[in-house]
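This week, think about what follows.
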Amino acid sequence: MRAGWTVDLVAASYPGAPAREVIDGVTVHRRGHWAVANLVLPGLVKRLLKQHRYDLLVEDINKIPFFTPLYARGVPVLAVVPHLFGTTVYRETNPLAATYVYAAESLIPRVYRDVDFEVISPSTRDDLVARGLRPERVHVVYCGLEHGKFTLADPPPRSATPLVVSWSRLRRYKSLDVAIRAFARIVAELPDARLLVMGRGPDEARLRRLTVKLGLQDAVEFRGFQPWDELVRTLHRCHVFLNPSPKEGWGLTVVEANQCGLPVVASDRPGLKDSVRHGETGALVPYGDDAAMAREALALLRDRTLWTARSEAARRWAAGFSWERCAAESLELFARVAARGRRP
């Protein structure tokens, strides 16, 4: 690769994907299905470790760990962690599956006690340290932002009437029902307000039923999946972004909305409290408090001066995040961990 590393990438497969191919100099090895990746991929990793000499093994711990330190064969390991579920997993799935994920996460402090971590927010760092990992081994590298995708030379005008958006995967643990309940309070004060729910997922049917129950079916629109250009133009037309999630690794959609000039009202919870600057780019409210979320959104919708100040601050905040900086910091960390592993 251009940075001087030769890379083998091990990943789950999907219909029609070749078992092995080279993409931009990276050799991709695929096996199994994402749902059983933690059971299938370790065998492939072990074979590659026997066939080649590696300076570093980077593991993406996305909910369920692969426990690579148990079979890395003397190769230093760096674990990349967006965030861990913790007890939040019980909001999303059945008790049996949730307990499986929770139990797997609970082993991380023991199995990875001598491993360096790259995390994407101070919240994830604090979570790992609270679980028993050493602070000096947990390194924060912020995500970037594709500024070109979210910046329009000729953006559409903001909606003439209050337009609120909640953009997320529609999964139960994302708590979009809180945003819908908050919007019920907003529309009671501003009858011409509208809410766009963007995204798709298994919780959509439940959210639609809630919308009907609250009598909001004429004021709430479920947009589903939108192509990037359409999504970005929609964000430029909105006024406020509601993010009611109980936990995020960082809150990438927050800074992407910020790039479109959108202030954000979000839960004062891990990840979101890092990506939302309270009182500057938006506001943080107690998780699940739809009244507080509505109150902060109404303040923005009613006060043009306040909205403009936070919109401008949001753009400035988003401008500080780039994938180039993220890649450079990650590669520097990779080199340090690999060098430490080569010492006698």
In short: The first strand starts at residue 8 and ends at 12. The domain at 8-145+323-342 is CATH 3.40.50.2000 (Rossmann fold). The two ends are 28 Å apart (CA to CA).
